[in-house]
Amino acid sequence: MNGNIQIREKIESDNIQIQKILDECFGHNRYDRTVYLYRKTLPLRHLSLVSCIKDDPSIVIGTISFYPVLLNKIKCLLLGPLAVKLKYQGEGFGKSLIKRGLELAIAENQKICFVSGDYNYYKGFNFYKVNDKNLNIKTLGPLSFDDLLICELKKNAFSLLPKNSKLLPMA
Ligand SMILES: CC(C)(COP(=O)(O)OP(=O)(O)OC[C@H]1O[C@@H](n2cnc3c(N)ncnc32)[C@H](O)[C@@H]1OP(=O)(O)O)[C@@H](O)C(=O)NCCC(=O)NCCS
Fold first, then answer.
1. Residue that wins the pLDDT comparison between 144 and 110
2. What does the pLDDT average to over 9-13?
3. How many domains does the chain have?
4. How many Å lie between the centroid of ligand 1 and the Cα of residue 94?
5. Which of 27, 63, 129, 142 has a CA-to-CA distance to 16 between 20 and 30 Å?
6. In the structure, what pLDDT confidence band is assigned to residue 25 with cuts at 50, 70 and 90?
7. What domain range includes position 88?
8. Is there an atom of ligand 1 within 6 Å of 114 CB?
9. Residue 120: CB within 6 Å of ligand 1?
10. What's the sign of the alpha-carbon dihedral 40, 67, 83, 47?
11. DSSP E strands, 39-73
C-alpha cells in the first residue's frame, strides 16, 4: 500500500472528514483531555497534513497536526492529533504522516517536538520519554499516556532545555 499513499497539506474542505476520523478514533469527549488545553490556537497550517490514496486524493484517510507550544521561552511543537480511519489502520498511513510532518518541521528549523502518545509506536520516530532524558516537565494536567514524549529535531536541541520546566500553550 505504501507507494499508493499521498500526503498533502490539509485544505478547508477536508474538515468534515477530519472531524469524523477524530470522532471515530478518540470519541466525542476528546475535548476533555489535557492535550486540548494546548490546542486553543490553530495548528500550524503548513504542518497540518492529510493522507489519502493517490487515486482519490479528495478522500481523507488520515490526519496529523502540530501545535506551537512553549517550554519556558523555547518554541516547540506538540504533535497531534494523529489519527487514521479505522478501516485503514496498519497500512502505513500513520507512519507516512509522522515521517512527512517531522521532515517538514526539520526543514523549517524547528528544534523540539513533543507528543502525548504510545512510546512503543513513537520510539520508531526517535521520540524518547522525557523522564528517560532526565527532564522534569510539568504539563497543564494529567496526560492519557504515562509519560510525555520528546523528539530532537535539531542536533543537540535537548541541551537547550532546562531540567525543570512547564509546557505551556502558545498564547
Ligand atoms: C496510531 C495510528 C495513528 C497509527 O496509524 P496506522 O496507519 O494504523 O499505523 P501504520 O500503518 O503507519 O503503522 C503500523 C505499525 O505501527 C505499529 N503500531 C500501531 N500502533 C502501535 C502501538 N500503539 N504500539 C506499537 N506499535 C504500534 C503496528 O504494529 C505496525 O508495525 P509494523 O509496521 O512493524 O507492522 C492509528 O492506528 C490510529 O489512528 N489509532 C487511533 C488513534 C491514536 O491512537 N492516535 C495516536 C494517538 S497519539
1. 110
2. 97
3. 1
4. 6
5. 142
6. very high
7. 2-169
8. no
9. yes
10. positive
11. 49-53, 62-71
Residue 86 grid cell: 479505522
Measured from the CA of 91, which atom of ligand 1 is nearest?
A: 11
**CATH code of residue 149:** 3.40.630.30
Q: Is 43 in the pocket of ligand 1 (CB under 6 A)?
A: no
Model confidence at 79, in pLDDT bands (50, 70, 90)? very high
Q: What is the pTM of this model?
A: 0.95
Rg (CA), the chain: 16
- Give me the helices (H) in 70-159, please: 93-107, 119-122
Instruction: Find cell 528549523 and name the residue.
Output: 109
Q: Look at residue 1 and tell me whether its pLDDT is greater than 70.
A: no
- Distance between first and last Cα of the chain: 40
Please report the pLDDT score of residue 99 as a whole number.
98
CA atoms of 116 and 119, how far apart (whole Å): 9
Cell of 32: 476533555
Tell me, using a 6 A CB cutoff, whether residue 95 lines ligand 1.
yes
pLDDT, tens digit, 9 for 90 and up, residues 159-169: 989 989 999 99
**Dist CA 115 CA 144 (whole Å):** 11
Q: What is the average pLDDT value for the chain, to the nearest integer?
A: 95
Q: How far is CA 105 from the centre of its chain?
A: 11
